Amino acid sequence: MGARELLSRGEFEFDAETVAVDDAEVLESLEPAVREWWVEEFGEYVPENGGLFTPPQKEAIPLIHEGTNALIASPTGSGKTLASFTSILNELFRRERERDDGLDNSVYCLYVSPLKSLANDIHRNLEVPLAGIRRKAEERGAEVGEIRHAIRHGDTDDAARQKMLEETPHILNTTPETLAILLNSPKFKEKLATVEYVVVDEIHSLADGKRGTHLAVSLERLENMTETTPTRIGCSATVEPLEDIADFLVGCEVDREASDGRAGDGADGETVPRDCEIVDTRFVREFDVELRCPTDDLINTPREIVNERFYDQLHDLIQDHTNTLVFTNTRSGAERVLHNLRERYPEYDEDNSGCHHGSLSKEARQSIEEDLKDGSLDVVTTSTSLELGIDMPYIDLVVQVGSPKSVAALLQRVGRAGHQLGETVTGRVIALDRDELVECAVMLKKAEEGFVDRVFVPEEPYDVAAQHVYGMAINDVRPERDVRETLQRAYPYREFTDEQFETLFRYLTADYEGLEEKNVYAKIWRDDNDPPDGEYHYPEYDVGEPLIGKRGKLARVIYMTNIGTIPDSFTCDVFTRGDDEWVGDLDEEYLDTLEKGDVFVLGGQNFEFRYRRGSKVYVDRTSARPTVPSWFSERLPLSYDLGRHVLEFQGELLERFQKRGKPAVRVWLREFPLDENSVRAIARMFDEQVRYAGPESVSTDGRLAVEVELDREEYERHYYVHSNYGRRFNDGLSRIVA
Prior knowledge:
By secondary structure, the chain is of the alpha/beta class. Helix content is 41%, strand content 17%. It folds into 6 domains: 1-46, no CATH class; 54-239, P-loop containing nucleotide triphosphate hydrolases (Rossmann fold), CATH 3.40.50; 287-448, Rossmann fold, CATH 3.40.50.300; 462-560, Arc Repressor Mutant, subunit A (Orthogonal Bundle); 571-621, no CATH class; 640-737, no CATH class. The radius of gyration is 28 Å and the shape is globular. The termini are far apart.
């Protein structure tokens, strides 16, 4: 049945014969039951989409249907995740219908996300299409078996893991770290041999760190195990440069015939990027974003007045909207904002407001997520845990407190509002100090112009390579050449040289003098395959073939308990004394400041600290006012690209001051998406700086200002380098100078 015929059967408020439909062939490539469900579910949006699919879906579904690798770059709420899964579900239903014995008891699709909450959300969202398509198939008289899907990550209990061996999900939602563990799971790794699709969601948040590097090698190890080459699909709302991220997603092939000794050839051949199609539909949503400041003078206005006006502004914004999501840059900030809202205004209580971050218990996080999806909370404060991908259809305003440090993070966060194509994305950024005011002004202007910060993929980290070589050696004795080739196929290691491999293998075999004195012992052995009458002969390999294997009986335990690249930060579990309920965790550094009787905030609730036993903290629930309402936590690094643009902005602003004066600067700033307080605060701040210390005291893209302070009591000079290039640059610069 064709597209228009299916539309004519629905009760839609348009003429099915005349409405514009430019993607009928995409619909007709799907199974009949999938077609019928799609039209029933999304037919009402045909007039605004110009067809049955959103822009990313129109391009991506045919590509994935053909088994083509694809990177989908499209705004939040544009349907890119469903674009990934539609062809996959279609293929699984087709096989289930056509094969007498149905689908195998194994995994066909891996969905990898950076956050457990995102995996949970996708798991919930798959219920709708799976149930709907199944219902349509049954209405057509077809007998359709169950297409199973499940989550596997750090929160999955032992019973659920064991059940997956007996009834294996056809679609498995997981995280990079859990995938690396599954690749070395003696039983479950066999279930991965049938994987045909890998979906990497929010790929930008993985690619710029070692977690992404770890995943890139895991995908090559998976490729070694699978019966066919899996189709890889990457999704992101904010990523640049697209070509590099596409190469990162799909990796390389090693051409053994093309080696000419260049760097990147290794001993086994030249690396050649795999093919990947880019679906670029990033600019299909309208944004209404503005920077606000509680005062037009951040220099002289007392801090308590700035704070009071901030909360009044925030309260007014929340009351003017249905559901508001408030982002801060730290977990402690999220707790503090929620606590102060409840303290200052009677409109907020535990029933209509909440807090969400990674230090809360699984149950607390999931409760907030469910309430957000239902639209039952007026306001939720969060740090980064709700930044990615989770579907929150009722959020109509996002407030960002302070600078999120990159244009990409701003777009991700603001994109949580208006989570449907066609809705305007509404966001307000509130700056509370001078540095963030300038950062946010430049950030919003660049976002308005369509700029996105570049992602810098880490190149050739030895720690990740060591983990994976160890993992491969644990799984089985294997040729050294296979290990090298697997690593080289991963994009971050495409130019890994023979010398670098030798360095890596020497470390893993403890072939450096003094390593054992530092308690660094050999993890693998490395030797040529012995003749048949030798002590160590492996008949599946040629005599003399260089082989590697694991050393030590506890190798698998060491690997499983140390996998991943998320930095260790020691935290203590928090339990209530009355019912021994786990309510979250706290940083040890913060715990050292607590004394018995101190009241702190966790998850929007107040707890009184009683005592600590090892890594467990025992508390009582209380209604008393907090004595220590926040705790130490993470700080976000400034994007290098944003820092560079801030310096360019400061240079242009100084030129305008010198040529036309303060009034002209204010006129120019009004071209930015700023309120009047922000315009006046920026102009006043730079005017006073230039009058007091001269234009040379301001860093620009052409100079770094260095401030010298004389300490007359200690007879010392202190130097302050005013660099805006971000934490990573500053760390490197400080090491050079030191």
